[in-house]
Amino acid sequence: MSKHSKHTEAGLTAAAAIDVDEITGRRRMRRTRVADWSRRLVRETRLSVDDLIWPIFIIPGTNITEPIDAMPGVSRMSVDKAVEAAKMAADLGIPALATFPNEEMDRRDATGSHVLDPDNLINQATRAIKKAVPNLGIITDVALDPFTDHGHDGILRDGEIVNDETVRQIAAAAVHQADAGADIISPSDMMDGRIGAIRRALDASGHQNVAIMSYATKFASACYGPYREAIGTSGLLKGDKRTYYLDPSNAIEAVRDAGLDVDEGADMLIVKPGLPYLDICRALKDSYGLPTFAYQVSGEYSMIKAGAAAGYIDGERIMMEKLLAFKRAGCDGILTYFAPEAARLIGKGLG
Ligand code: PBG
């Protein structure tokens, strides 16, 4: 006696007689996947060292390398150490660095006025790195958050982050950063009109060749936590940044907002954070065709590091897969704390 029901018997008989060629029409996708040489031949997207921008954190002092608890493997560096790191990055073939300062608390005030000091930490770092490694690109942020005592990216007046006054201040800061030798000004503050203002200020000061890489779509994300520890703003921030960063729900608004930056003269666009916003990466690339970058932010980095440290995931493979995802989504490059690690793997042919 059969242990199957009649229906099961009929199913098994049908399965044995299935003509798979008839279903596939002989179009078999696995043919090109059959061997390594063939997979390499049909590969559509590649990650290269040329795609990597390395964000680094600067602190006052000399000969200091201070690990950041929330970002395993990342340290704040004094300017001299940052110069060494810049040389290492250049040797690895990384095209550019993005610098972020952790300024002393007594330098921070309600208006972020120290951003206008031509000799602040960020400008010191630019000068020193440019002198030592002239062919490495330097990207500086003009947002006020490292300079305010409330951790916001703009000037706070009566409980409001005021737009136009902030824009004038960051446009002035951009001039100082360009004077110090920055190649690309990269405002991450999300104030309205800042791209046009920075462009005008740069042009008026003879910096026509200094480019603007706009944080065109920056979302009010939970992924920035470790960065705020890195620059010392986590304890300072009152409230949140939802009155100026984009709502994570809004893709159409994000594309419109980026369009204004394009009209105002942005040369390149950033999507931030990265992986949760791959749809935005694709949309911006397809809409504007500008060089488009994803910022794989601190929280994205730390999640991979934590998962790998716990033994739950293969950290290196996850890192490379996620970096590749940005390329597939249309990005020309990625700002990533993994830049040196990824560059080494790519250099060994493991990319
Ligand atoms: C703010 C700024 C942020 C980051 C860089 N500049 C976001 C924030 O603190 O709100 C985040 C970078 C990261 O998380 O890696 N201008």
Describe this structure in words.
With 351 residues, the protein is of the alpha/beta class. The chain has 2 domains: 1-43, no CATH class; 48-347, TIM Barrel. Helices cover 41% and strands 16% of the residues. It is built from 13 helices and 12 strands. It has an 8-stranded parallel β-barrel, surrounded by 9 helices. It has a two-stranded antiparallel sheet with strand order 6-7. α6 (163-180) crosses α7. Residues 141, 143, 145, 153, 188-189, 224, 227-228, 241, 297-298 line the site of ligand PBG.
Main features:
single chain, 351 residues, alpha/beta, TIM Barrel, 2 domains, 8-stranded parallel beta barrel, two-stranded antiparallel sheet, 13 helices, 12 strands, 41% helix, binds ligand PBG
Which consecutive residue ranges, at least 5 long each, have pLDDT under 50?
none
Would you count the extended β strands for me?
Answer: 12
> For the record, what is the CATH homologous superfamily label of the largest domain?
Aldolase class I
What characterizes the major β-sheet?
8 strands, parallel, barrel
Shape: elongated
Strand content: 15-25%
Instruction: Please state the average pLDDT score.
Output: 96
Q: State the helix count.
A: 13
Q: What name does CATH use for the topology of the largest domain?
A: TIM Barrel
